Amino acid sequence: MTRSVLEHCAVRGHEQVAFFNYPEVGLKLIVGIHDTTLGPGLGGCRMRLYDSDEQALEDVMRLSEGMTYKSALAGLPLGGGKACLIADPLMSKGREALFKKVGECLNHLAGRYITAEDMGTSVADIMVVRSVSSFVVGTDPNKGGAGDPSPWTALGVFHAMRAAVERAFPTAPSLSGKRVALQGVGHVGMYLLEHLVKAGALVTVSDTQSQSLEIASQRYGAHVVTPDAIYDVPCDLFAPCAIGQTVNKDSLKRLSCRVIAGAANNQLVDKSVYATLAEKNILYCPDFAINSGGVICVSAELASGGPQNSWIESKVGEIYGTIARVLDEALKRGRYTEEVAIELAKERLAEAKRRGRR
Ligand SMILES: NC(=O)c1ccc[n+]([C@@H]2O[C@H](COP(=O)([O-])OP(=O)(O)OC[C@H]3O[C@@H](n4cnc5c(N)ncnc54)[C@H](O)[C@@H]3O)[C@@H](O)[C@H]2O)c1
After folding, report:
1. Which one of 28, 70, 82, 101 is the catalytic residue?
2. How many Å apart are CA 154 and CA 322, to the nearest integer?
3. DSSP per position, 219-286
């Protein structure tokens, strides 16, 4: 069923959705601003061709809502936002003019939305936006940007894994000797692999890129399996670090893990798997609660003195306590972890509203 824009807003609670149309540069842009209680909506600008405008709108609405919860749980003074630029991500002719126009669109929103790199866009695109608008993060590290967020995302996931293992294995609460099935050794997955190996975990990896698998095997001694076989690997933790929706009805029939903790966005196909996770006694660490290292990193560019690694490290370290609280609450009250995490994020928003911090 197709929803109207205002129906979408009513269901998900968005404050604003902005549509921009400048055919002279091929720009069709949707910006979703979900909640600015804690600060301006921050989230990447995704560039892709959609099957329909409705599909693009659905993507913007879902992703911007998720950013609100991610930033609220991470304790950032930021709200949730996301932009979808409906265009071919591989386009080269006219690309600069297109991204300059994106910058002008952001200026119309006067700072209620701050953009960053996302699927289909690059640091180079972001720097073009930056040339006309200051409402941008994720900029070039040689020009004051915070640099690649992946190591911070990996560190946050590692902290979350420590908290999860302490709860799932109370008699052996360490990652040492734990078997981890790691799906995807790209930017985040490879850094996570390094942390896991240092901690004494026994890691099996899968990827679609043979070069990454070679590095994982030769440099870190990881055991390698084919992309499909990762679900059958006997393991204590499953770490999805590749694509979304890999936790679904079919994969759950095969997974034998006690914990799911990874960096990928939208790991669960939908809420229908909550019950299966509970039946299988799998402790799921909600993706938006544990993969916030990236947004923490890029948001550091907004600090008056520029990004500081010590601040990023300490903020990423807080992910351990946040996930511990989510898991403890879920275990104590027999609740689904994702529901608890959303509730906690909403509590933070409600508290900020009560204090009138707008
Ligand atoms: N980079 C960050 O800081 C960050 C922050 C938050 C969330 N995420 C999410 O984490 C995930 C990983 O991000 P990344 O930056 O490492 O991306 P990436 O593209 O560098 O790595 C993904 C890896 O997964 C592999 N892959 C693709 N399909 C696969 C499959 N079916 N089976 C196994 N491997 C497969 C790719 O070959 C690649 O090596 C993404 O879902 C991303 O949205 C990343």
Report:
1. 82
2. 16
3. HH--EE--TGGGGGS--SEEEE-SSS--BSHHHHHH---SEE--S-SS-BS-GGGHHHHHHTT-EE--
Which residue's CA is the closest to the ligand 1 atom numbered 5? 294
Residue 136 pLDDT greater than 90, yes or no? yes
Q: What is Dmax (Cα atoms) for the chain?
A: 64
Binding site membership of 189 for ligand 1 (Cβ less than 6 Å): yes
What pLDDT is attached to residue 249? 97
Residue 355 falls inside a structural domain: no
> Is the pTM for the entire model greater than 0.70?
yes
Ligand 1 neighbour 294 (Cβ under 6 A): yes
pLDDT value for 1: 65
| CA 207 to centroid of ligand 1, rounded, Å | 9
* Domain presence at residue 144: no
Q: Which amino acid is at 309?
A: N
Establish whether 82 is a catalytic residue.
yes
Say if residue 120 is in the same domain as residue 155.
no
Answer yes or no: is 145 within a domain: no
Its domain, for residue 167, covers: 150-349
Pair 129, 195 in one domain: no
Q: What is the pLDDT of residues 175-189, one digit of tens each?
A: 999 999 999 999 999
Q: How many CB atoms lie within 10 A of CB 170?
A: 8
Contact indicator for 77, 88 with CB cutoff of 8 Å:
no
